[in-house]
Write a structure and sequence with these properties.
Chains A, B: InterPro entries: MmgE/PrpD_sf, MmgE/PrpD_sf_1, MmgE/PrpD_sf_2, MmgE_PrpD, MmgE_PrpD_C, MmgE_PrpD_N. 2 copies of one chain form a homodimer. By secondary structure, chain A is α+β, with helices and mostly antiparallel strands. Helix content of chain A is about 55%, strand content about 10%. A 4-stranded mixed β-sheet of chain A has the order 6-5-7-8, covered by helices on one side. A two-stranded antiparallel ribbon of chain A has the order 1-2. In chain A, strands 3-4 form a two-stranded antiparallel ribbon. Chains A and B meet through α3, α4, α10, α11 and α12 of A and α3, α4, α10, α11 and α12 of B.
């Protein structure tokens, strides 16, 4: 079985990228990726999922050198990577590489920022490693998507571990061979099943990918060897976890065309496939005013994947609501909300929202693009209104502006750490490239004694 | 897709097994499993693989409540589970569930003993949890073997994580629902690629399975929820990681017929498929005496899997030698050795052994059983001698006696901790069921201040 030296060439590139090799517009998207991630990590920090994870890992924490964003607890670097990865994903509000549905920042930024607290690095070096990590996971994702995802793998976990290993490995100065080992150790830990969607374990995936990726880099640094061909070997990652292997997606144009520049940021706190529906329902609500109370029926036509991923008819919890296009449509029409507050247990069980939810019909149509939706409202008087959403806000075609990224950050972080600290974290995150010590962002985002003293 | 409630019924059984439910002969095999594991963990403790892993994880260790067997370092429970799992496998000398080629004790005992040091349990309770963990991983392995293994998964890692979660979950008293969560968290971390064979990362698999399984149990205990059908769901473990799913292997006769009673212990420190060859070559050496120096050619006929797994023609390191049926045959004929000392860098590069190795021919014959071999020696004078090994020593048909298990333990442990401590560990391990505190075995097996004081 012949394949190019994928792992070696990729490792070569990872360790060789200099700060100046990353074009300004790619660095800019990297900063937006980082700001969006930090907002999500702070915004998710008070979630019960994070509480439970902290209860479990706290007794095993090593030297508490790293911050849990939005909280007062400190943990060792590896456990902080896990926790920040969990909180950044728990509201399903994070970033998306739309070609693969990878949420790139969770595994990479969670690992890298925790490492930066223990092994200081400049903001500029930090950002280069962040972009490199995102690039690696998205390219590996491209190589195996969609077969890999269709088989049942949660690609944010399985591809994400490579991104974390690459980012941390580059940041701590691995040579090519050790980077190959780190990628091999990542390959053998690539895991995460889509069966876990709708439970706390979904958020575990980016967290564990961050932790395992960082661990892979530290093991390689310590001389713990591994396969040199972990990605492409006959029994390596791509062949074992996928029926599709397109290595050109990994190596072609490396350093010239950037997947990391294609990242997008969710305006809504749920699976990306519901976004066109929420966008359309919000617009309809604006246009209809009072008439929204006269809706008899809502008819959605979507790509089959939308119902496969988010077809929960009667969600009982906020978390399940994120996987219900029915709840999302009803909630957006009646309240206009698509933020984390739209996906609380209370909102999912609100009688008027449940009532309209039960009158939402959804039809799967393979001819409908995954990122589009057709919405038809039928009113009590029999009249109808229709809306087609070609691409939702937050997509690559209609990206959030910097101001919208900041507003999203503020909206969710304020609920957790208040307005003053939110502003400080936001300023630090946007200015990460100018920091002498990137770990400062994490410390600014921690609560407790230090934050109170400021 | 209908399937029985595999995860729920299995979890129900795990949490319900009482000490008395495990028949005496199964408990006895459990003790043998534990003794063999402890010997391997101590025997492997001075290996460079363990040194490298310790360098990597030591900076992240939490409260040092658990021992690394055969060493003076102490680590938190999760990292101790990782390290003991690595050392118990690094010499490829551990136990084997022959139906699946799972090495059962590595994931289960490494996790459970580390937990027992922090959360004391009686030796009797410890042994029940150990047997339950082994039973769970072997049954899950049976359900997906051989497709799962053929696809490229290192089944000791992928099935092992369930065994560790079951053993630890039972030991810490999870209820059925939380045990289902623990199995779900294990399912989503089931990983380990066969591509890693021949590198340090192979031993990482049982270690990480131990660590991840224990973590799964602790997360579930803390209320971190997961799928209730992690094993059998359409996108659960069995469907995503295998094309074969035979759930009867998991549920049928649970508690009545015991896979844990079928464990076997390697007499030789290498892949089980080479054992018939070494056994035969040792016997031939005994029979031939001086004539062994007149061998011109060695002709082996084996099952194709033997060459697939151990077909390294020119191994350069001791570790590679374990994957070379050529080296193993030559070394057994010229030195009689199949223990860890047969697989050192020095032995693999000894001129006379290399010379005969290059004159070993191996032919794959699908008609030959995996556990059999035909050996033909051709002498310089043209004469030949043939030997057929139907089943090797150490197989279920020719199991090691308790005395042979002890001798194997002593042979390898003495090289690491000396004769006195070896005797103390061996006594403690054989007597584990009578201990008020099973963790005593781990403390007895640690070196350094405490051991020196005794």
């Amino acid at each position: 079985m012949t394949s190019p030296a994928v792992t070696r060439n990729l490792a070569d590139w990872i360790v060789g990228v200099r700060d100046d090799d990353v074009p300004a517009e790619v660095r800019r998207e990297g900063v937006r990726t980082f700001v969006n991630w930090a907002g999500c990590a702070v915004g998710g920090a008070s979630h019960e999922t994070v509480d439970a994870a902290l209860r479990a890992v706290d007794p095993f924490s090593g030297p508490r050198k790293a911050s849990v964003l939005g909280r007062s607890e400190r943990l060792d670097v590896l456990h902080a990577a896990l926790l920040n990865g969990i909180s950044s994903h728990v509201l399903d509000y994070d970033d998306t590489h739309l070609k693969t549905i990878i949420h790139p920042a969770g595994p990479v930024a969670s690992a890298l920022l925790a490492v930066a607290e223990a092994r200081p690095m400049s903001g500029r070096a930090f950002l280069t490693s962040l972009v490199v990590g995102v690039e690696v996971e998205c390219r590996i994702g491209n190589a195996v998507y969609p077969d890999h995802y269709d088989r049942g793998w949660h690609i944010t976990g399985t591809a994400g571990v490579f991104g974390a290993a690459a980012a941390v490995g580059r940041a701590i100065g691995l040579d090519t061979t050790r980077m190959q080992w780190a990628l091999g150790l990542a390959a053998t830990q690539a895991s995460g099943l889509r069966e876990m969607f709708g439970t706390m374990t979904k958020s575990f995936h980016p967290g564990r990918a961050a932790q395992n990726g960082a661990m892979s880099a530290f093991l390689a640094e310590a001389g713990y060897d591994s396969s040199l061909q972990g990605i492409e070997a006959p029994r390596g990652f791509a062949n074992v976890l996928s029926d599709k292997q397109d290595y050109g997606e990994i190596l072609d144009g490396l350093g010239r065309s950037w997947e990391a520049a294609l990242n997008s940021y969710k305006p809504f706190a749920c699976g990306i496939v519901i976004h066109p529906t929420i966008d359309g329902c919000q617009q309809l609500r604006e246009e209809l005013g009072e008439r929204v109370s006269e809706i008899a029926e809502v008819r959605l036509t979507t790509h089959p994947l939308v119902l496969e991923l988010t077809g929960k008819r009667t969600p009982k919890t906020g978390l399940e609501g994120k996987f219900s296009v029915y709840h999302s449509a009803s909630c957006a029409l009646l309240t206009g909300d698509g933020s984390p507050t739209a996906f609380t247990d209370e909102m999912v069980n609100r009688p008027d929202i449940m009532d309209l939810r039960d009158r939402v019909q959804a039809t799967a149509d393979p001819a409908c693009h995954e990122a589009s939706v057709d919405i038809e409202l039928v009113f009590r008087d029999g009249s109808t209104v229709a809306k087609h959403i070609e691409r939702a806000i937050g997509s690559r075609e209609k990206p959030l502006s910097d101001e919208q990224v900041s507003a999203k950050f503020t909206h969710q972080a304020e609920l957790v750490v208040g307005a003053d600290q939110t502003r400080r974290i936001l300023d630090a995150a946007w200015g990460v490239e100018d920091l002498a010590d990137a770990g400062e962002v994490a410390r600014t985002a921690a609560t407790g004694a230090r934050a109170a003293a400021e």
